[in-house]
Amino acid sequence: MMNKQQVIAKWSGEKGKRLVYPGSVVWPDDDCVSLIQKMCGSGSICEVGCGTGRVASAFQPQQYVGVDINETAIQKAKEDLPSHSFRVIDWDDDLPEADVYLFYTVLLHCPDEELSAVIGRCLRGKRVVVFESMSHKSRQIGNEFQRDLEQYEAAFLIHGWRLCYHKRLLSNYFPHFRDYAIFGKGEE
Ligand SMILES: C[S@@+](CC[C@H](N)C(=O)[O-])C[C@H]1O[C@@H](n2cnc3c(N)ncnc32)[C@H](O)[C@@H]1O
What we know:
Elements: H1 4-11, H2 13-20, H3 33-40, E1 45-48, E2 64-68, H4 71-80, E3 85-88, E4 100-104, H5 112-120, E5 127-132, H6 149-157, E6 162-170, E7 177-184
Parallel strand pairs: 1-2, 1-4, 2-3, 4-5
Antiparallel strand pairs: 5-7, 6-7
Bound molecules: S-adenosylmethionine (SAM).
């Protein structure tokens, strides 16, 4: 399996940008925008791993900041959506303060040994929204780190986040389902 440095190298620079944009899946896939908006709400949002910013347009510029370790992807996001805020971060950097942290097809790229540290950086939020196809069975050796919902539940619980909502939708695109999960601390 890839380690943290290999994952960072995979997503860095032009190569990483090509992996995200234009990407293999059309956007928005399966009419997910209204669901994402509903799950994130009207507060401030930090999208972690925003890539070239394709999800950002679902949000008002003043409520949104996108961060990513890929400098060229962030540059493209800034060109495409000049009113929205985007920042390059290093893997271990603190995240900007926000009500909601959104991981849209990002945590499945996080090595198992790094997952707890990444979740721990969402310290000050009220809600964490995770979108991806959750299936440990889909994990391919050396590639990505897909997990079942139960594995995310256990990892989030260590940091005091409880599963508040989960929805699995069928998709036209491989692997033909998408999971949406909200974790909260019971303060809302
Ligand atoms: C599959 S892409 C998804 C991009 C975007 N969310 C989208 O759906 O278009 C995964 C993105 O997460 C970024 N990424 C991976 N691990 C990260 C981390 N620990 N912190 C910030 N960004 C990360 C990568 O650079 C890449 O842009």
